[in-house]
């Protein structure tokens, strides 16, 4: 490829305006970019295939502002069959494609991380004391995610942040803090990829043979619904013991984050401000999803019940905890992805929060796991009763497990209820823009809180 990197990516911007909205990690769901501009472009490899790195700026038009995305673009004269699905468009006579799908180009990233060098303004730095093996086969991860990850052999997983933001990266910082506290509930940090302003990628040990919490929990629900005249405790795939151990693991993570990064007691005026913020989040959600309106009084009452709350403890927490952020390894539960809520601004994400926020997230997730199989099916009272029984049983087991290490979350009923409702409202907005077929899950939950 003979064109300068910036010109090469600029040649692709019309194609990108079509391609970006089809990507799972594109945040402004439903809006086609009005314009795509190139903020930074660099060539990481000039061979054939060539590898371009770019930060592009998506202008959503109508005063909606811009969003920056990180792209890795492969360039070849022709796309072989195994990359046909990855095509983006054309740069001159060549084909441009999503490079994370190309093992040949991704193995270059592993070599760069192992070398610790700086290439085209990007630093590839192993974490202190880590020796990175090279020569491992790269493969893209086959799951839907907010970013894009590549696995190397069975040893490392590199997450490329699709919307890198300036300042310290929360995922990296919290992992380092947990490592300092000796946490056994995280995958070890391996390397960080950064430019002058942005953290672009984060590599960790790949936990081979780990089962995703969501997959394990929903397998248990499937077993139960197939035996709908048995109680959850009588079915072979009962999940309650695992839910309990997961509760313990989450409490350990909270204890270690508190030890490494400290805790604060919220003064009364901060509680008032936090309640106002909950209401403001609800206002924004109501404006986006009209179906929420019937639940407004219930949710506002739960928020108002917090006004007199005294001495609430806040600290760094996971921030977006659900079963999909947990992995069950042979030695216990591990939490992943400490970036915080994908829809929150970087400033909101770094704030200290009540640990009960994570507990509320997990409790909501047990509800999701129990009910997602019934979403969009004919109402069946028996199946619904069994699914709700599964949710109750596992929610209770999770809280009991948490209480083995930290305090019992159920002793803070008003706060937990308000945070669960806030999370359900967040989920309504998330589902409305990402998975409208699942919108009924958090809406039905709001109905049951009534
Ligand atoms: N250390 C790891 N070991 C094994 N699998 C992992 C690891 N980290 C992430 N994964 C897998 O990658 C998926 C996406 O990771 P995650 O950090 O949640 O990315 P995103 O921020 O894009 O949602 C997870 O659901 C899990 O299946
Ligand atoms: O994993 P992400 O950081 O991208 O989190 C977002 O997407 C999640 C869905 O993948 C979403 O979680 C919601 O759906 C889950 C089931 O798919 C469920 O277990 C969670 O309880 C529910 O909140 C998450 O809210 C969103 O931030």
UniProtKB/TrEMBL annotation:
Pfam families reported in the protein's UniProt record: Mak_N_cap
Catalytic reactions of this protein: D-maltose + ATP = alpha-maltose 1-phosphate + ADP + H(+)
Top enzyme category: transferase
SUPFAM superfamilies listed in its UniProt record: Protein kinase-like (PK-like) (SSF56112)
InterPro entries, sorted: Kinase-like_dom_sf, Mak_N_cap
Key word Transferase present: yes
Segments forming domain Maltokinase N-terminal cap: 19-102
Pathway it works in: Glycan biosynthesis; glycogen biosynthesis
Membrane-spanning segments: none
EC number: 2.7.1.175
Sorted UniProt keywords: ATP-binding, Carbohydrate metabolism, Glycogen biosynthesis, Glycogen metabolism, Kinase, Nucleotide-binding, Transferase
Keyword RNA-binding: no
Subunit note: Monomer.
Annotated family: Belongs to the aminoglycoside phosphotransferase family.
Protein name: Maltokinase
Source organism of the structure: Actinokineospora guangxiensis
